[in-house]
Structure formats: structure tokens, C-alpha cells
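re: ur question from the group chat, yeah i did fold both. here u go
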Amino acid sequence: MNTLGKEDLSRYNRQIILPELGITGQEKLKGARVLMIGAGGLGCPALQYLVAAGVGCIGIVDDDAVELSNLHRQILYGTADVGRLKSLVASEKLSLLNPLIQIVSYQERLVPENAEMLFSGYDLVLDGSDNFETRFLVNDTCVRLQMPFVFGAVFKFDGQVSVFNYEGGPVYRDVFPEAPAADQRPDCADSGVLGVLPGIIGSYMAAEAIKVITGVGTPLSGRLLIIDLLDHSSQIFMIPKAPSFSKKVIAEPVPDDTGLRQVQKSGKVQERERELDMEEFKRLQQQHGESIFVIDVREPYEFEEMPSAGINIPLYDLHSSVDMLPSDKLLIFICQSGLRSRIAVQVLKDRYRGKMYSLGTLLFKHA
């Protein structure tokens, strides 16, 4: 039984009086068991809000220790915590925030050998990890166990949020079928991250978890929210569930009066919209040579820091730049991870009649 006691009713009063949530929703939160992967930049805010919201049992998986360089964004910790294990410190401080919550600390790294054991007994997973291997492991384990999970990621000034494997919806591999090459992966340790960004994205993750648990609102299943703090723009891209992990269709964003962009397109992936791997690109290069036109759709600051062999047209400038694109060339879109290059094909599919491909990795002049 998840009956609310007197202290529950007092502590969560401001949530309970929301007609959409009410006593029933709060009881669902009390009965929920949530596993947080990573107690870092995303995990700290997500954990704080889930504990404060009254999620009954929360597990924390993290084997890292607090470092001084963490503190500008992982504000659950203080200078005195440097050197201590994050999962233990987080457990202690979160218990002070809400002693009604059961918190389980796992001082270990998530690996294939322990993933199913750690996930068993939980209803929902939040992935606050910072590397592709862990994200794929979270996805694949949740798919096997038929568990939904909330995804978040941050890089420099950009953040992403989605809900995967929810009620038959798309999974993480529908967006990222495989990890980029090691030298092409975004890395906050090398490139940095604005300290407030994980707080914003982690809060979104907590909100999505609450929606999944209580049934309030519409979770971001089948949709990827992208936030850019430099201009405060937000984009929502539709993620159709792919029949396989080799070809994807992601919808073009169009503006609406809320400032978000949202549209869903359906249909098969056409030949001119194929996603290439490096071997296929080299084959096209041998066949067509100078007919290939490479476009780097990253932001200008990214292009300046790591110039590629293509011309730089940022993704959200493509619409206004379509007239400058050569109609007699094969367009090859590239970016850091493959997400924006796939979106670029969709952005231009109704306006550019030539052949277009997404390579999903960077090309350099020496390559």
C-alpha cells in the first residue's frame, strides 16, 4: 500500500493540490522505484527533484569520486566532499532533503555483467551518463527488460532530453544506431560545458520521470528536445520508430507560436536520403569524385574550433541557404555525431531535388 501519511500530505501539499496529479498521482510517486545512472551534472538536479517530489525508492549507480572540477555544475556537492564517492555523498545529502525516501547507493560502474542485476526491481531508469558505451548499455538493458528510460545529454551550451522505450516507442538506437569514432565524440572534459546547463537538462529529466510515473501530461517519447542556451532556442524533433537500426527518419522542425518547433513526417527513406557509413562514402567518392559537395552543419564556433573539409552551413540556416547549393552535386551532410546531419536531409527533402546523404561523422582535409 502506498497510502500517504500525515507528513506526506504536508510535505507534498503543493503537488497534491494540482488537479492533474492529486492524491492518486502522489501515491504513484511514493510507490515508484527509479534508478539513476550517474550522480554527476545531470544526476544531481534530477535526483534532488525526484527526492523532493516524493519518489519512494531511488537507486544511484556511480563509482566516481567528487573532484574539484565537478563543483561548478554538480551543486549537490561541496568543497569538503572532494575525494569522496559521489553515490555515498549524494545518498547522505538526499536523505537530509527527504528522510521519507529510501535511497540505495551502488558504488560501482555500470557494465554488461551487472546491468540486469542493477536494473531489476526498478520501474524506470534515468540515464545521466556521459559516454556512448554506457548509453547503449542502458538502452539495450532496458529493451531486454521492457523498461522505459529518460535520456539526457549536455555539451557546451546544448542539451538534449527524450524518453525511450516507452509504451512501444522509439529507443536510443533509433537516433544513434552506433557510437561515433573515438576521435569524433563530443567530450565535455576537452570542450567544456556551461555550469547551469546540466541543472536545466537534469530538471527536465526529473519532470519527464514524474510524467511517466504518474501519467500526467505527454512524455517526450518519440520526440527529442534540443535546447541551445546561447540564443535560448528550443527544437523538438520527431523520432519515428525505425524497423531497423540502420536507417532513420527525423522530421524537419517548423516554427509554431510557442517558440518550439514540432512536426511529424512519415514515409520510407528514399535512396537520396540514405545514411552512409565511411566505406559507402569512400565508394561514392571513387565513383563521383568532384561531384560530391560536403556540408558541415555544425555551429560556426564548432567549425572554427575543429574545421572540416566541408563548407559550413549551420543546420538551422539551411532553409535560407538552399539557393546556394549546387543542384548537380551529391550533397553529403556531416556533423559531430550524426544527429544533425540526418536532420539536415529531412530539412531539405522537399526543397532540394538532387541526391542527399548523411555521413554522420566529420571529414578532414587530410582524409
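okk and heres the other one u asked abt
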Amino acid sequence: MKKLLLSILLSSITIQGFSQGNVYKQGSGKFEGLAMTPPMGWNSWNTFETNIDEKLVKETADIMVSSGMLAAGYNYIVLDDGWMSKNRDIEGNLVPDTIKFPSGMKSLIEYVHSKGLKFGLYNCAGTHTCAGYPGTRGYEYQDARFYANLGIDFLKYDWCNTAGINAPEAYATMSNALKTAGRPIVFSLCEWGDNKVWEWGKPIGNLWRISGDIYPCFDCEFHHEEGNWSSWGFMKIAEMRKDIRKYSGPDHWNDFDMMEVGDGMTNTEDKTHFAMWCMLSSPLIAGNDLRKMSKETLAVLTNKELISIDQDKLGIQGFKLSAEEGLEVWVKPLSDGAWAITFLNRTDAPKKINFDWKKNPIKDTDFGFEADFNKITFKIKDLWKNKEAGTTKKNFTADIASHDVITLILIP
């Protein structure tokens, strides 16, 4: 009998002991609700790469406020690769570059916050960043605490030097680390779309890159011989991935990369680039030197009518409705039954638009929205000219220059 009781007791202890390992469930996943509309701001990489410093950040913050960009919605300043020293300290902590940031990173972040702006930093899921600085592999929870203690609001997390690493696991680990550190930080997954991040990223991050790096051209591919990789013109990126718009929405955005507005294209192409990013519900992250931007560049970046399309609370990415002889029509459903319509001239010559609304009903098969212009009439407003443009009872006619756009809002 004693042997039987002892056997039962040992069995009970064994079962409880093994089951205890499965009782605790760690809190995981991103901070919810931090990006209910696509984030807007500025990132250092497109213009400055690793040539960044304290003076640049402070001047950029000042201009974002004084120029009206903050008032237009741009509220993040994100320092990309190159902000840290080449080595961690003796305790394994990241060390901000003291030559570039002599007042210290925390002091700089406090300055940015004092302007009513938010602050972001960059790191990488691999052993090293793309520019060769310390990556986060193996330091995820330590780095998350470091960022929380600094008081950052945004983390861009790249995908260089990741041989042998599983992308969903790597990004989930960092997402969980940020959550455990306790400070709400927007998590930007810069995985380039190589592992179809849109299929698994929603519980992990607030936005995710869908392509490799952008390049300031309309529709080109720029090949980097030293690294055997390519950067892409904005229209190549706009059409690079098929059937991913259904994965994008409030707090989980397809990110088409930082903008090249003001970085060397024509003002017409800048307009088109900006309009397409708004139609695609992409984050609007400027990448130009704000200290040197022209009035024309500022006018594009702060066009409130276009921004309202990007920031529409419905949060649905637009799509191409039609394409004929280089003239494309892109559409985007908006809240309250409205639609954004963009005519895009892909060719190198001017075009004439004569668009019969009644012959071109809209059907959004991903989200179930429709517009039958035989049944309902919409008022039309031209958002670049900021003026009324009739109704859908009549054909829409206009001249459109090469590489240009005309963006309308249809109001029922």
C-alpha cells in the first residue's frame, strides 16, 4: 500500500512538474493601435545614408515645424543606419556615436520630443546592419530595453546579414522584446518582401516594406554593381507585388518605401510619386533634405487634399482599374462612400483623357466596394487644382502631360 501511495505521489509530482513548463504564456505581439493611419514623417537614409549627425536632426526637426510639415501630419523623425558606434560596450549595449551625437542620443530625442515630434531609430535582424554596424541578432531583449530607456517611438528593423535566420521568427522575437520592454514603439519590418511578410506580419508589426530600396526615377532599375542588387523607380515598386492589397489596413500597412520627392526627379514626377503613395495607402516618409527643399517640393509634400486620401480612416489600398495605351486609371475607396481616382500617363508624350464614367463601373473584389455610375451621380473635385470639376453625368475630359497625374475625389 505504501509503495502504491508513493508511486501515485511521484506520478503527481512528475505530471505537475512537466505541465508547469506549459502553464506560463508570454505576452507577445506588437503594440496595437499605434498606426491606425499610415505613419508620416522623415527618414535620413535616401539623402544622407550614414552621414548623419546631431545638427542635421535638430535642423530637420525645426524645419518640420516651421515649414508646416508637422501641421500637415509629418510627425516622425527616423534616424536610419549609421547612428551607432562600430562596437557594443563591455556589457553588450549599443553605443550611439559620440562624434556624430556629442550631446548624447537621449538629449537629442528630448529635443525632438520638445518640438511635438516623435523619434525613431534603425537596427537590423542580422548580426550586422547593412552598413556594418552592430545588428540585433542575439541581443533582442537587451536592445529593446535600450530603446525603451531612450524613449524612442519608432523602430525600423532591416534584414541584412541574416543567413540561416527564419524571418517570421526573427521579427516576432523583436516584436515580443519591444512589448516586454513596455514602451509603445511602432515596429517597422524592413524585410523587403522576400519572405512574403504581408502573409505573417500583421500580429508582429505595424508596417512592412514590400520591396527593395527605392531610387529617384519614374520607372527605372538602378543596379548596384558592388553589391549585386538593385534599387527601383517608384512605379516599379508600385507594381512589384500582385494581390497584396488585401493584407494592408489600419495598423498593418504595406510600406512602399521612403519617398524620393525632392530628390532629383522633375516636379511632375514628384507629384505622380506622391499621388501614387497616397493612392496605395503607403506610409508617407519623406527622404529629401528638408533644409534645401524648394517651394514646389514642399507644396507636393503638404498637399492636404492628397494627404487626406492616404490618411482616410477606411484604410484601404487603391488598385489599377484600367490601362489603355499608356493611360492608367487607379481607384481607391474612401470613407462615406467617396472614391479617389488618379489618371496616370505612363508614356513619354502628352495624352488626352476622355473618360466615360457610365462605361467604367468600379468593382473592388478584395473589399466588396462598388461604384455604378449609371445608378448614382458623384460630384468631382480636382485635388491638384483644388477646384470643382463637374459630375459623373458627363465624360471627364482633360489633357495630361507625360509622367503626370490628375487626381480626383468623387463625392456621392
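fwiw on the second one: The longest helix spans residues 2-20. The first strand starts at residue 40 and ends at 43. idk if thats what u expected
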